[in-house]
Design goal:
Layout: H1 7-31, E1 41-47, E2 69-76, H2 80-110, H3 118-131, H4 135-138, H5 141-176, H6 186-209, H7 215-231, E3 234-239, E4 242-246, E5 249-253, E6 256-258, E7 264-267, E8 273-282, E9 290-298, E10 317-322, E11 332-336, E12 347-349, E13 355-356, H8 361-368, H9 374-380, H10 400-425, E14 440-442, E15 459-461, H11 463-467, H12 491-501, E16 505-507, E17 510-512, H13 514-554, H14 558-593
Antiparallel strand pairs: 1-2, 3-8, 4-5, 6-7, 8-9, 8-13, 10-11, 11-12, 14-15, 16-17
Helix pairs in contact: 1-14, 2-5, 2-7, 2-8, 2-13, 3-5, 3-12, 3-13, 5-8, 5-10, 6-7, 10-12, 10-13
Length: 594
Amino acid sequence: MVRATFSGFDTALSALRMNQKKLDVVGHNLANMNTEGYTRQELKTSSINYENPTSFYMNSNDVNVGFGVAMDEVRQLRDQFLDGQYRTQNGKSSYNESIGESLKSLSLFLDETKVNGIRSSFDDIQRSLTNMQDPSKVQDPVYEGELMSRVQAMTTLMNSAAESIHQAEKNEFHKIDGTNTSENGAIQKINSLVSDIGDLNNRIKKNQLLGNPALELQDQRNLKLDELSKYVPIEVEHFSEEYSSPTPPTTRYRIYNYDSAGNVKGRSDWPEDVRVNLVYRDSSAGNGTEVKKITLVNGAIDADLQDASGKHNNVGKVELAAGSIDAPLNTKLKFTGFQKRGAAADTFTTDTKDVRFSSGSVQASLDMLSTSDVRALVRGGGTINLADLKASNEMNSYSYDFYMGKLDLLAETFTKNMNEVNKKGNTNYAGVTNPNYVLMINKDNAGGNDPSNVTAANIGISRGWVNGTTHIGTNGFRNGASATNRGDTTDTVLEMLEQMTSPMMKMNNTKTNYADYMNNVSTTLATDSYANKNAQEINKAVLEGINNSRDQLSGVSLDEEAANMMTYSSSYNAAARLMTTLNDTLETLLAIGR
């Protein structure tokens, strides 16, 4: 028996429409191949074969044949696993990149491989003291003036280094909080991204319920999720909205259809939601490190509801919990999850030591602004555990405060030793001390001759040494003062020179001289920079590999689309030829009937 008259025409027409639509999709892909964040699209099709195509009048020997092709949907080619891997690796790469920028700012004034700095200034001081070993030169104003100018140059370099570290701390704080600056900080960017993602979730959901897949809006959301992963580690979760059924009482999901007994009988047209979780690790309870998470964006649920401030209920926020531009050390952030129905939102506050992110530029900034116990550990004596000089053993490098502490200890020790030696040189055999003996001072203290509480930021030379009332001592008494042992005029200079070459500074668990101490500081910075650079290169290579794999699936290939265009064009021509053939056959049948 001949098939229904127009059945073949319907089959051919469905093929024509399908191939035309596929050519439209190819054209759309090619038009957007350079659009940032665009995901390649394809037309999903299926064969049409009705459930009961057998007619009552069909012969039992007839073979059932399908009725053409159905166009199901236009979909994106994305892999959620690759997206998750990319965002995880993106956070790791961003952490190393941010640390690298911070260490580079330190190297501008602590790296002495190409320029003369604090370490070289101690060599200059040592050369001046060496020149003054001759008794005739101890009280020579030319040689003493040279020594004073070189000591002053060293203090100026320390002041400058301390100021640079303070400025670097402020810049790091601005990376977190961009208030009153020309650029937003991480707080503002995270809040903006979270709000945008929550709004996109709502718009995508509404479009999908109306039958529009909103693929371009999904591209926008994916771009913002990728950007958010640079700041904090996130987990993107696809889920279905829940609802309660009274008969029988149970929790159901919108994406499924249920029978009267509550059993799943198929998938509904209800679209899935996207939830964005912030992942962190908490070891404050003392029971190891526990992985926790809070939800920053909860799909499109309650997205149209707003609180008193106008913030959507389906998104959370981040705010500054501790720290300021004038006191940036130990900056802390408070993260608040979305507003739950009938329950308080989840919250937590960052802490460099106990509460940490596994990746992201936010954690890098928090690490660089953490305090270091280097001053207390060195002053306390005993064995120094290098790991204790970092707020957390998970930190990749030492913080700004570590290097500031190192410079503070150097300034404090050098001031104390120079003043003690010169005090002996200004004490006669009867034990009477000339009050004008102080060489090094805290220039922030009133009077200009107070040596207490010296740091790298305030170290300077005394006013008396500048105006000529204070001089290098000529008594010395290296072997003890007495009426018969009045010392040599070069004893003070010799003792100062000895201190320049003797181990005076505690470095790790040993002692070293001033110049080598500064070498160690520069070496520590260089080691941190080198290790971080290697980690950054490795993470960047892995990130590029994941991105390439993602592009192979989601990116638009000119060669592949051109090949598809040729294939679909040929298929279109074949479908047109089929329709022409059917028309010829129909005309032949009609001619027989005449």
